[in-house]
Amino acid sequence: MSRHHDQILQAAQWIKTATSTVVFTGAGMSTESGLPDFRSPGGHWTKTDPAQVASVEAMQYDYDLFHEFYTMRFQTLKRCSPHQGHRILAVWEQKGLVQSIATQNVDGFHQQAGSHRVFELHGALNHVRCIHQNHPGSPADFMMKNPCGVCGDRLRPGVVLFGETLPAAAWDQAFYEIQKSDLLLVIGTSLQVSPVNQLPIMAKGKKILINRDPVSSACSFDIVFQGIAGEILQQLDDSMNEGTR
User: Fold this and answer.
1) Backbone angles phi and psi of 136, in degrees to 5
2) Could you give phi then psi for residue 14, rounded to 5 degrees?
3) For residues 52 and 61, what is the distance between their CA atoms, to the nearest angstrom?
4) pLDDT digits (tens, 9 = 90+) for 162-220
5) Cα 177 from Cα 110, distance rounded (Å)
6) Annotated catalytic, 122?
7) What is the DSSP track for 165-192?
8) Residue 201: which of 226, 227, 224, 175 has the closest Cα?
9) Candidate list 44, 122, 132, 135, residue with the active-site label
């Protein structure tokens, strides 16, 4: 029996009966797919200063370093794919159990798994564009350092860099959905990154947290699962399906 057994039963019941459930995911949702995160021990940010590689300044004044870092990220992404947890969330959306997903992740795994209503708060790695005119490009062109086919400008990934603001449309949609939800499921985030860490505060309904490591603001959640996201989601899904088998 799971050490979370009673909480699993309670959370599964909430998911089944909620009228508006929103999922909010962070890097911990993708580490199970093989993508390294940036803030845990051993993550990228402990080895590389983000201000040097993932910033507007690096893109403008040290493009070679900027390009090397994001080429590495593209190569890593190509070797990874969505895991069972992503697919479970997609099925829940199809069943009407989840209304939308707001994510800090830029890997596109939620969409690859089959989710449709996804708000990408930090952009999307594969949405390559030129730096100044935003003409679309491709990841392959970026990695080969090919210029923009329209204006000849350098290319960049479609992520939010340090020094840039979040995409307004994704932020506004996520804010609205979370505010009107009666259940918020937060998965795989330490809630340390501003301003997105303020979004769960806007939720007025019940809140569930799933994270591998302890989270300092966990006391504001109704149920907290400390564990692997995919495993907890599988237990929740199994619990919800028990009565239909």
Assistant:
1) -70, 145
2) -60, -45
3) 10
4) 999 999 999 999 999 999 999 999 999 988 888 888 999 999 999 999 999 888 876 79
5) 17
6) yes
7) PPPHHHHHHHHHHHHH-SEEEEES--S-
8) 175
9) 122
Structure tokens at 9: 């039963």
Helix, coil or strand: residue 139:
helix
Helix axes 84-94 and 229-241, enclosed angle (nearest 10): 40
Do residues 172 and 152 make contact, with C-beta atoms less than 8 angstroms apart?
A: no
Confirm if 156 and 128 have CB atoms less than 8 A apart: yes
Distances (CA, A) of 152 to 69, 131, 191, 215: 22, 10, 39, 45
* One-letter identity of residue 102: A
Place of tokens 């947290």: 209
Would you call 110 exposed, middle or buried from its count of C-beta atoms within 10 A (0-12, 13-18, 19+)? buried
pTM (predicted TM-score): 0.92
Q: φ, ψ for residue 142 (rounded to 5)?
A: -60, -50
* CA–CA dist 137, 156 (Å, integer): 9
Q: Beta strand 118-120 with 100-103: parallel, antiparallel or unpaired?
A: parallel
- In Å, how far from its chain's centre is CA 237? 20
Q: Residue 148 corresponds to which tokens in the numbers above?
A: 């923009």
